[in-house]
Amino acid sequence: MKSRLIPVVIVGACALLGVKLVDAWSVIQAQAATAQPAPEAKPEPAPGAAEPAAGSKPQSKAEAPADSVDPAVAAKDATPTTDPLLMSPEEIELLQKLAARRKELDSRAQEISQQEVLLKAAEQRIDDKISKLSSIESGIDVKVQQKEQQDAQRIQGLVKIYETMKPAEAARIFEGLDMPVLLDVLDHMKERKVAPILAALDPDRAKQITVALAVRRDQQAKNSTAAAAPAAQAPAAAPKPAPQGATP
Fold first, then answer.
1. Could you tell me which of 176, 180, 182, 181 has the C-alpha nearest to residue 202?
2. DSSP assignment of the chain
């Protein structure tokens, strides 16, 4: 008898457990369906502020209270503006002086900028002129060197001619030559060739040539000495000072 009741009790317990589970699941679904979000808390009105009238629409974002305004925007809107009508005569006069000073400084800065441009243009022109003068100077030096070479070649040609001539024939030609040309020729001729020509010349003419030739050679010697003097007079190295405490 007991063995028959045990399966019946087990089946009954399982059925009762299933009924309880179904009831619990139904309750959970009912609570989830009936659950609603919590209502938003309405801001309490400030003390002394009038309550909104019934039926009035809630404020939009554009009509938000002053507390919700961005602090940066509020600070910008709160910046005081300069109203000339609210300024004293002294303040207006001060502003006028500041404006005049500002205008004067701007004008001065513009003048300085223009002067800088003019100075740069003048410097460029000066540099161009210096470059041109340097080119001209170089060209002149080249021309002078060429002229000196040509004169030297011409003198050497005359020297060869007069050295091969007879002294009497050379003397007749020397009578009519200019003194600078004659001195150049005689200065490059050999002394043994010059002596017979001077002997064949007129005594006064020979005297003039001799004196001029002596002065010329004396001047050449002085020029050579003056050119060699700077190299010989180069300053010597200054002696090093003796260390302090050293005995002389």
1. 176
2. -HHHHHHHHHHHHHHHHHHHHHHHHHHHHHHHHH--PPPPPPPPPPTTPPPPPTTPPPP-STT--GGGS-HHHHHHHTSPP--GGGS-HHHHHHHHHHHHHHHHHHHHHHHHHHHHHHHHHHHHHHHHHHHHHHHHHHHHHHHHHHHHHHHHHHHHHHHHHHHHS-HHHHHHHHHHS-HHHHHHHHHHS-HHHHHHHHHHS-HHHHHHHHHHHHHHHHHHHHHHHHHHHHHHTPPPPPPPPPPTT---
List, for residues 144-181, the tens digit of each pLDDT value: 999 888 888 888 888 888 888 898 888 888 888 888 88
The amino acid present at 113, given as its one-letter code, is S
| Amino acid found at 112 | I
- Output the average pLDDT for the chain: 75
d(CA 154, CA 188): 11
Residue 58 confidence class, pLDDT cut points 50, 70, 90: very low
> How far, in Å, CA of 189 to CA of 159, rounded?
6
Residue whose pair of structure tokens reads 């309490």 in the numeric block: 44
Which residues are CB-contacts of 193 (< 8 A; sequence separation ≥ 6)?
162, 163
Question: How does pLDDT run across 216-243, given as a tens digit for each residue?
Answer: 888 888 888 887 776 656 555 455 554 4
Q: State in Å, rounded, how far the first CA of the chain is from the last one.
A: 147
Amino acid occupying residue 186: L
User: pLDDT by residue (tens digit) across 18-34?
Assistant: 666 767 677 677 666 66
